[in-house]
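Reply to dn_fold:

You asked what the input looked like. This is it:
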Amino acid sequence: MIKSSVPEEIAVLLRQDKVCAIPTETVYGLAGNGLKPEVISRIFEIKNRPHFDPLILHISGRAALEGLVGEIPEVLEKLMQVFWPGPLTVLLPKTDKVPDIVCSGSPFAGFRVPDHTLTLALLRQLDFPLAAPSANPFGYISPTRVSHVLDQLGTRIDGILDGGNCAVGIESTVIGAGEGCIEIYRAGAITGEELEKVGGLPVKYKSGSEHPTAPGMLESHYAPRKAFLLETTESSSSERTAWLRFSTYKEGVSKEQQFLLAESGQLRTAAQNLFALMRELDQDERFDRIIAELVPEEGLGVAVNDKLRKAAFISR
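and this is what came back:
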């Protein structure tokens, strides 16, 4: 396995149909040639990801959509102009050039331009998009550092582009064009308020599904291996309980058992720290369960709470 901070070295592997981890501003992705079914199948196999859960295709810019998609709705064009590069995935009608395995048989495929210098340099050297779900075993906490990838997939992948820690820390927002609205299939780093302001249309959130039409729609996801619960007024504590809190400590519980996502109270900081702190607590042998406090349900808090609720679903 090759670990490198030089995009050219990873590009060589990807042209040979290898599978490599790549950094983005959101999380690390497990990448391969998005136009070759056999490569995409290997990505599913490495992650142990069900084939009914679609992947996202990463491209270098708007021009790279040529030949891959059909007519693009006006509202999505407007949003791409503003938010690309960035943490926005857009569902677009695909052409036959995009294999059905990418989008689980749907006529739509998800595309985004990642806002990461090294990965953009990598993509510009390739003549194909990169299918790149998060570089972790399916259903587990998404990786935001090289060490997270190496700990879990280091023996199964061919290379990793070392781009440091991810700046945003939670996944991209996944959207599509609805009837007179912008449909959000997965809450993420671009908020509904931002999309409404730029797109000029109201947003509508799509519900979770056992057979999703976009990534991130499954009700159970992002889960630690330990019991993970959402905090309620009835939540009780023991010395083996870790408390994942937003910005303040809980009275009556030792501070050594409490971990703050954002002491500053900034939701962007909470989003950036979420997955790394969840992993840290999952690996901390002092605790056998984690109780998480929901953050304010506004702005980026909608996406953070979406991840917390999906992580807790498996423990219900």
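Residues 123 and 248 are 42 Å apart (CA to CA).
Hope that clears it up.
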